[in-house]
Amino acid sequence: MKVLLVSDSHGKGNLLNQIIERVIPDHVIHCGDFCTDRDELPPVSLTIVKGNCDWEDVPEEDIWEGAGLRFYVTHGHNLRVKTSPLPIKYRGEEMGAQIVCFGHSHFPFCEKIDDVLLINPGSISYPRGFAYPTFACLEIVNKQVKVTYHQIDGKEIHERGGIFSF
């Protein structure tokens, strides 16, 4: 199964559409700050949460299950993701998730702490503390997750990501 993970598109739906067309994912997770009307989002299998800049009535956190794994999805602004990964890791554990997806910091992050994989895809529009906009792809086979990071044009960012087993 291929999952596309994006965040912080801040109204740049055209970039999101281009990425989806290139990646052709089975499911898309958007970690908030999409900053557009919900009906302008692509008509694909999609889990979306509300970021601190969003106005649409969507959940602030959600659970998605796929490929035998449970994903906790939130923007992260209420869990202090810019200062420590621990509050969001603990919330993911409370939600029974193996994978926690979040945004808000606009910085790509991927780390497994204990039995919880934390993934921030960065921002596809306005990176902070990183040279270029990013998104993440998850390839899941038999509860093994390969996380790769990419620039908007699809070029892989080799210094981020990894392979994680559950």
TrEMBL record:
Required cofactor(s): a divalent metal cation
Known EC number: 3.1.4.-
A Pfam entry, by short name: Metallophos_2
One example GO MF annotation: metal ion binding
Domain Calcineurin-like phosphoesterase: 1-142
Enzyme class, UniProt record, top EC level: hydrolase
Family: Belongs to the metallophosphoesterase superfamily. YfcE family.
Protein name: Phosphoesterase
Lineage of source species: Bacteria, Bacillati, Bacillota, Bacilli, Bacillales
